[in-house]
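Feature request, filed as a ticket because there's no other form

It would be nice if the structure record came with a short human-readable summary line next to the tokens. Right now we just get the raw output. Example of a typical job, pasted below so the devs can see what we mean:
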Amino acid sequence: MEQSKEKIKIFLSRFFKSRELQDEDDIFALGFVNSLFAMQLVMFLEKEFNIVMEPGDLDIDHFRTIKAIVNFVDSKADVNVT
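Raw output as currently delivered:
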């Protein structure tokens, strides 16, 4: 989980250079997300964590915060293992 969080933080820091995001910061409410970034985030998560996004996975609540992203990635990884 910590390794996933660190990878996600590094990815996000490339886009949010002016702010160090905390685990609970809502990146949508902060106005940092546009449609291009959202697609980049999805593609990064699929490639980095070897997961496949299903249409039902594209719920904004899965991507609002670092904590939510980590929980989502970990839940997808658990499904892929079983």
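Something like this underneath would help us a lot:
DSSP finds three helices and no strands in the chain.
The chain has a mean pLDDT of 90.
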